């Protein structure tokens, strides 16, 4: 925390009430707890150091285990040096009188910021007299496939980072002294910057940014794909101050022009040409999925996106529309039922349309691989998938999109009444949270029914929105109006 931002450390200790609520913290904690628990079960002879009744007791317990020559893994070994206390996820005897240290992470690879975490553990352990022979990040192996219920042997892989950590270990004492001095002083005068989001979004970012002067209404950061970075480096932060002649990127020029003029960029003929080959009946399709760090379904990998819901609006050539949908909240593996529903509900001919449709196509093909008896129908369905997103990106831009072509950014510019804000489930993340809540044993029937209703409303809104958007793209502005 101190190395990301000294002010963040100071605020976390002295002004904790300024922290913003983190909606995803509980889910991340649950994932981390589950991953850690699985890592422990894979070392069945390990000894857990409990944090109760307090951490002082955990320190005493750990010291006793180490001093008594324990030859078994230790979980949550608790050590302290120079006022810094750490709980090491796993210490494993190396067979030569030393210990292999492993920090368990739910990510699928070791990350740069993990090195600093490991260095702190190493610094404390060594100064506490514990001989560490190797140190690694024990992360989830993305190639693991669950073959038997409850058998997670092979779920983790170790990436040794001891060599990378050594230079940081050497400076840990100075860093601790600097952190202690920061905490003893006044609130640091640290300006907001890129560090506010790296490696983690800071919970005090709102407080810090509120102290800044108001920025321009249209900052250069609305230029997509990092297009504003060049101008910020030149000291230009207002998009309206950018010389249009200097914009060589056609999309950036289009965004700039629409922002300055207040006119929608709309290429009706381009949109019509792009969609002309989309055969009827057209199926507007959207999945909701969940990817568990620890796979729960036979044949799935860590974080594999398992579909538990879809919405399909089927449109005929005469303009008729029929809504079909699937949702599974009973806690069982939803894939077979989802695959069967797709084959039953999606017509065997015509375009299947998604928004960022590679996602939908990927899920269909995964279902085809999982269920060979349905593979022919599902593979043929995947071959008919087309994408509305690139059509929208090429043929529509309204300045209120602020550089984004996500459907939630585009929809308010064409149909403000279809706002997601009124829905209980508002985005993919909250859909996953709703599903996870609904499938636990403690969810009441009343609450599950409410979640069922909310999920159907959200997923159905996504496919309905695609139809509205596609129709708008093909109408001239003199029919709907083009001024912002």
UniProtKB/TrEMBL annotation:
<dbReference type="Pfam" id="PF11074">
    <property type="entry name" value="DUF2779"/>
</dbReference>
<protein>
    <submittedName>
        <fullName>DUF2779 domain-containing protein</fullName>
    </submittedName>
</protein>
<dbReference type="InterPro" id="IPR021301">
    <property type="entry name" value="DUF2779"/>
</dbReference>
<feature type="domain" description="DUF2779">
    <location>
        <begin position="284"/>
        <end position="406"/>
    </location>
</feature>
């Amino acid at each position: 925390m101190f190395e990301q931002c000294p002010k963040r450390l100071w605020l976390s200790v002295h002004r904790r009430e300024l922290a913003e609520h983190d909606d995803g913290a509980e889910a991340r904690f649950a994932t981390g707890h589950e991953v850690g628990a699985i890592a422990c079960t894979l070392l069945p002879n390990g000894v857990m150091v409990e944090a109760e009744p307090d951490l002082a007791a955990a320190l005493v317990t750990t010291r006793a285990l180490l001093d008594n020559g324990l030859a078994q893994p230790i979980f949550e070994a608790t050590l302290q040096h120079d006022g810094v206390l750490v709980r090491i996820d796993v210490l494993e005897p190396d067979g030569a009188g030393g210990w292999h240290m492993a920090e368990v992470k739910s990510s699928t690879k070791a990350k740069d910021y993990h090195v600093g975490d490991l260095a702190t553990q190493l610094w404390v352990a060594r100064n506490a007299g514990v001989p560490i022979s190797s140190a690694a990040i024990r992360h989830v192996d993305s190639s693991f496939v669950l073959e038997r219920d409850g058998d997670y042997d092979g779920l983790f892989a170790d990436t040794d980072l001891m060599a990378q950590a050594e230079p940081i270990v050497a400076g840990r004492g100075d860093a601790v002294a600097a952190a202690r001095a920061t905490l003893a002083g006044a609130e640091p005068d640290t300006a907001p910057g890129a560090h506010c989001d790296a490696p983690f979004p800071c919970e005090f970012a709102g407080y810090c940014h509120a102290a800044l002067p108001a920025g321009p209404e249209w900052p250069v950061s609305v230029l997509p794909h990092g297009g504003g970075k060049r101008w910020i480096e030149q000291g230009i932060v207002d998009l309206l101050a950018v010389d249009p002649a200097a914009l060589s990127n056609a999309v950036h020029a289009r965004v700039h022009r629409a922002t300055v003029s207040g006119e929608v960029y709309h290429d009706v003929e381009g949109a019509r040409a792009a969609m002309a080959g989309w055969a009827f009946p057209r199926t507007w399709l959207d999945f909701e999925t969940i990817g568990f760090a620890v796979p729960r379904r036979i044949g799935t990998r860590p974080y594999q996106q398992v579909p538990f819901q879809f919405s399909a609006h089927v449109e005929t050539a005469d303009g008729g529309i029929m809504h079909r949908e699937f949702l599974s909240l009973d806690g069982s593996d939803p894939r077979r039922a989802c695959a069967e529903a797709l084959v039953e509900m999606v017509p065997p001919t015509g375009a299947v349309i998604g928004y960022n449709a590679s996602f939908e196509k990927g899920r269909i093909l995964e279902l085809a691989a999982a269920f060979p008896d349905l593979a022919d129908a599902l593979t043929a369905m995947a071959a008919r998938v087309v994408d509305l997103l690139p059509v929208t990106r090429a043929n529509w831009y309204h300045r209120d999109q602020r550089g984004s072509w996500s459907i939630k950014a585009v929809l308010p510019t064409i149909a403000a009444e279809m706002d997601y804000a009124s829905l209980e489930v508002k985005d993919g993340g909250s859909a996953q949270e709703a599903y996870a809540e609904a499938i636990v044993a403690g969810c009441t029937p009343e609450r599950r029914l409410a979640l069922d209703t909310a999920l159907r409303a959200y997923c159905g809104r996504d496919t309905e929105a695609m139809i509205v958007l596609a129709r708008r793209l093909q109408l001239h502005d003199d029919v709907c109006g083009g001024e912002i």
